[in-house]
Design goal:
Blueprint: H1 5-12, H2 23-34, H3 42-49, H4 63-72, H5 75-79, E1 83-85, E2 96-98, H6 99-113, H7 119-132, H8 135-151, H9 154-170, H10 176-189, H11 195-204, H12 213-217, H13 226-250, H14 255-266, H15 274-283
Antiparallel strand pairs: 1-2
InterPro entries: DUF4487
């Protein structure tokens, strides 16, 4: 059936009406097909992953997008303890997993093995899920992105993090929701960045610059490598103390912005010395 184009059309058609009673079976079917993409012939995998829509045809979407659309329609099954047989691992007994884990594991397995030529399709769909979809799809996309950060190359993970940090710093966001979602994704990805790349972030975004305080405010310091954690903590504590003291003495016009960024950053720093306590106290 996976090699049948009419079957693919049926499952990936954008505008078809689906009865509520069929939502779960459709999602389950898509989850089992998506994991087969790396092993089907290239022509057919492209048909599933990169549909070509012509004016005379009904609009089709990638199987990855169809699966995420289907997940949205299965919120109850994703939220309730619906148990499905999990992936069989060599040397381990098969266990029952939630519908959520079932989808994420198969989606991740498929992405880890697809052609590099199709990877941009995955990135586009995951970004769409981060920004334009429900909380459920945002959660799935974030978990899959974290899997990619662990499974694929360190350079790929770093390039994603650098791009997202660039957006956070330079994009004018339409809503706080979109920006907060990006912040949450970056916060999940940063601890997965390789050690040498974490150190490069210090050069890319010096923590003693006001423009970078918001960037460092989302960093989960307790999960970063010790050398980066201590260097950032020391730099930000010194910089924040001097900045806040200047604010107290001169009543700077942009003090509210600076203070808010300092406070958010200091809140996640280790509190084992008097400098941190002093800076936090001034923020309050």
């Amino acid at each position: 059936m996976v090699l049948n184009k009419k079957f693919a059309d049926l499952l990936t058609c954008r505008n078809q009406e689906i009865l509520p009673k069929d939502n779960f079976s459709r999602c389950y079917t898509l989850a089992n097909i998506v994991v087969m993409m790396p092993v089907v012939p290239e022509e057919m995998s492209s048909y599933w992953i990169k549909p070509e829509n012509y004016s005379e045809d009904e609009l089709r979407v990638s199987i990855f997008e169809a699966l995420l659309d289907s997940c949205d329609a299965c919120f109850a099954e994703m939220s309730l303890p619906v148990q499905l047989p999990g992936t069989v691992c060599k040397g381990k007994a098969q266990r029952m997993v939630s519908m959520y884990e079932y989808v994420v594991s198969r989606l991740s397995a498929s992405i880890s093995a697809i052609s590099s030529q199709d990877f941009h399709v995955i990135e586009k769909i995951l970004l769409k899920s981060v920004f334009d979809r429900s909380v459920l799809c945002f959660s799935i996309a974030t978990d899959v992105w974290c899997f990619m950060a662990r499974w694929m190359t360190a350079d790929l993970c770093y390039s994603h993090v650098k791009l997202f940090l660039h957006w956070l710093r330079n994009v004018s966001w339409k809503t706080d929701l979109l920006k907060n979602r990006m912040r949450m994704l970056v916060r999940r990805l940063l601890p997965l960045v390789a050690q040498e790349h974490q150190e490069l972030l210090l050069q890319e975004y010096p923590p003693d610059s006001v423009d970078n305080l918001e960037i460092w405010s989302i960093v989960p310091f307790h999960k970063m490598i010790e050398s980066v954690r201590m260097q950032v903590a020391h730099t930000i504590m010194q910089f924040s103390n001097s900045l806040l003291q200047e604010w107290l003495n001169q009543n700077l016009s942009q003090a509210d912005l600076y203070t808010r960024n300092c406070g958010a950053t200091l809140a996640d720093l280790p509190s084992s010395n008097s400098q941190t306590y002093s800076a936090r106290h001034m923020c309050i």
